[in-house]
Amino acid sequence: MGIEIKGITKAFGKKQVLQEIDLIIEKGQCYCLLGKNGVGKSTFLNCILDLIKPDNGTVTLFNKDYTNNNLDVKQNMGALCEDNPLIEEFTGLEYLNFVAKLYQLPLAEAEERIKSLTSYFFNDKESLHKNIAGYSTGMKKKIGIAAAILHKPAVLVLDEPFTGLDPIAAQLLVQLIRSYRNTNRVILISSHDLNYVERIATHIGVLNDGQLMYNGSIQEFTMNGKNLIDQALFQLLLPQHNTETNIDWMLN
Ligand SMILES: Nc1ncnc2c1ncn2[C@@H]1O[C@H](COP(=O)(O)OP(=O)(O)OP(=O)(O)O)[C@@H](O)[C@H]1O
Question: Which fold does the domain 1-76+182-240 belong to in CATH?
């Protein structure tokens, strides 16, 4: 089994964000989590990553939990968080070398992987020698993605990986995710970019009102391709969308 989530519950003050969510993500899946703004996708991913402590519930990754195997679990996990925290005083290359050291990658192996990932994502090699503080949002995102994947984690969690990427970089990321997926790994992604989700997802989860309103294969979600993924999502969430709001004042 890849990821097993049992009864995850989280509130911020009086706001109940996640309510007893159960979910199993099997090895080999690329599970894409969808849902409206503020519904709790990042909170859910952060609970899985042990960055937020849930009020209740457990997370097991490859049959290990954080309580008894903290380091073991985290060594086998790669993450891009929504706010993509990097060390901005470092250059892109310094940062990736630092991450490689944290994961104790052998030097030659680290060099090779960093070279390959940076060549993959960056045309302009010079920028890799500049401080991250001066990078654009997309450049920072590419460094964050490279850092998440560098140690070949069995569990790869990417929160909004396509946001801020140009179409070329986004297409490269689609290819990378598709290549990365195999039967020994689990990929979990939160995204609003349905065009890209359609090309990478094996499974879809739709979070709404604290629960998974849909959890299943992408084939089932799109009725074997009869619906586009955005139509399927719209149909699922439309009854709760406020269509009554009058915006006629804009028209003239
Ligand atoms: N640290 C926090 N303190 C208080 N409330 C929080 C905190 N983090 C998140 N929230 C609230 O929890 C809810 C879920 O937020 P979250 O960022 O998980 O949503 P999301 O689905 O990822 O949203 P988006 O699609 O806009 O990124 C929101 O109402 C948010 O305001």
Answer: Rossmann fold (3.40.50)
